[in-house]
Amino acid sequence: MCGLVGVVAHKNVGLCLYDTLTVLQHRGQDAAGIMTCDNGKLNLRKDNGLVKDVFRTRHMRRLTGQMGIGHVRYPTAGSSSPALAQPFYVNTPYGLSLAHNGNLTNARELTRSLYSADHRHINTDSDSEVLLNIFAHELQSQDRMEPNADDVFTAVTGVHKRCRGGYTAIVMIAGYGIVGFRDRNGIRPLVYGYRNSELGREYMIASESVALNAQGFTIERDVAPGEAVFVDVQGNLHTRVCTEPGEHTPCIFEHVYFARPDSLMDSISVYKARLRMGQRLADKVQRLRPQHDIDVIIPIPDTSRTSALEMANHLGIKYREGFVKNRYIGRTFIMPGQSQRRKSVRQKLNAIDLEFKGKNVLLVDDSIVRGTTSKQIIQMAREAGANKVYFASAAPPVRFPNVYGIDMPVASELIAAGKSNQEVEALIGADWLVYQDLKDLISAAHEGNTSITRFECSVFDGNYITGDVDEMYLKRLELVRNDAAKSARKKNGNSKRQSNLVVDLQSDG
Asked: What angle do CA 469, 471, 476 make, to 5 degrees?
């Protein structure tokens, strides 16, 4: 999962992009990058690390220009080499840079065709580089000295014809403008809006609406499935649906975990969706255990707070903050490797003993993925003196890997894969485990926008909506995504790291 932003304005956009990336930091903590265009001259800074660490004053002074794009990344099947930080760049045609969120399920075939048919070289194992070169080839095929909006939209149409999976991208065409586009099923999110300045209208395209809110942009709407939004350097907006849209099926895990609660996704309030998740989970608790003995409901910060609070209100049980969070530790779901995740949980959370001692506690989390975090937190609650520790997940059991841009582990590393709820309960050490029903999760999101009748729920039901994911694909995925493979890549990358992989087109001096 990654965060994207693109801005076309009437003054330097560097600081606006930086501030926006800090708002989108929750979507990726592995790397960050910004590229700006100043009268056709490109300025780039990118590296591994958090936004605040990648960009220093000397970098920001050089990120001049009235349009630019930014990216925050966490790796999926690829490695964490600094060379994979985005935006990516190719010089032909015109000078193109790309920021990408998602995953191309046919990246292997595309890489072969780029070499054999398009005569383009791919230098990394990133499907983002593949997507950029596909777009570059399609735009170059228009054979124009100066591209116009029609040429850009025709190139996007070519991208959709060749690419499969779940993806959004923002591409900057040096000297001409910025285009953002979304896959034909609308799996990954993208939104755009405007603000008025004394010099005219300015536009932003981003992964989440909160990015626009933070910079004073008015949200126009979500980019539709298969649609492209092009803003030229004069600040003119052009939009077109560039492919026959599929069924609109946004990723429901955005509402469960990834998105900020103050965002709107396809006109659905993430905050209200999580409130409804809490209501429905409370109804299930009441249904299964009408004579429950729960004394207190405690969320596992931060994502589950909204659902946990609504559960407590619905059940008439005390809500308490029983864990103090160290905010300088990254999101454990994103941490590579089991050993690092185990270590980070104890660094990240500390229990307040008086909220646990002698009580029957219901812990609420947004989901259970590997189970590593859940098991340790339950143990922490017992060590703090809890009498009984119950556990509630606002999402159903995660039993299948994600192939559309979320680094959901392979099936062998998912605690619920091939197991009953009772078996998971025993493995994490809970006195009772209750999962959200999938139909209730879907209902919680659907209620926010009744025009969306289906969501991408493959991690829960194994139904991959693009229709091109088979057992062989999942086996290949397991080979590159399992923790052992990631550790090997990280070790190999560290031993071969070269200083010239950290790209800064203007030397730090």
From this structure: 85
401 upstream amide cis, omega within 30 of 0 = no
At 493 the pLDDT is 53
Q: Are 239 and 178 in contact (CB under 8 A)?
A: no
d(CA 136, CA 72): 22
What residues act catalytically?
2
Could you give the CA distance from residue 284 to residue 435 in angstroms, rounded to a whole number? 9
Tell me how far apart the alpha carbons of residues 434 and 445 are, in angstroms, rounded to a whole number. Answer: 20
How far is it, in rounded angstroms, from Cα 385 to Cα 487? 36
Q: Which pair of tokens denotes residue 207?
A: 């992964």
* CA geometry: angle 197, 201, 205, nearest 5 deg: 115
162 and 156 in contact (C-beta within 8 Å)? no
**Lowest-pLDDT choice from 62-76, 238-252, 282-296:** 62-76
Residue 354 CB: number of other CB atoms within 10 A?
12
**In the 3-class helix/strand/coil scheme, how is 242-308 assigned residue by residue?**
CCCCCCCCCECHHHHHHCCCCCEECCEEHHHHHHHHHHHHHHHHHHHCCCCCCCEEEECCCCCHHHH
The predicted-structure confidence for 101-118, as pLDDT tens digits, reads as follows 999 999 999 999 999 999
More confident: 500 or 211: 211
Secondary structure letter of residue 339 according to DSSP? H
pLDDT digits (tens, 9 = 90+) for 3-28: 999 999 999 999 999 999 999 999 99
Cross-strand pairs, 36: 43, 68
> 48 in helix, strand or coil?
strand
Q: Which run of H or of E encompasses 3?
A: strand 3-8
For residue 364, pLDDT over 90 is answered with yes
Q: How far apart are CA 156 and CA 154, in angstroms?
A: 5
Number of H helices and number of E strands within the chain? 17, 22
- From CA 198, how far away is CA 219, in angstroms rounded? 19
Question: Distance between CA atoms of 122 and 115, rounded to whole angstroms?
Answer: 8
Quick check: 156 and 228 in contact, CB under 8 A? Answer: yes
Q: Give dist(CA 96, CA 16) in Å, integer.
A: 21
Question: What's the CA dihedral at 74, 79, 83, 89 to 10 degrees?
Answer: -70
Specify the amino acid at residue 31.
A
